[in-house]
Predict the structure.
Amino acid sequence: GLYMPVSLPQRDAAFFNRISEGSLADVAFELSNILLGDNIPPADVAELVHRAFPFDTPVVELEPGRQSVLE
């Protein structure tokens, strides 16, 4: 099923800067831990997201500094 939280926790710019350097699985892990809280142990979340996203997602700049897309 699709998990939809009632509200989304606020994050600062440092959080977004940090996740922009990670893989898709790394980002999914960070966000899942925030949204799921203590409902699923972090080790289980890590295994799930790394199995769900075993591929790279390169970002290609269309207009440097303005517009990018996933390849």
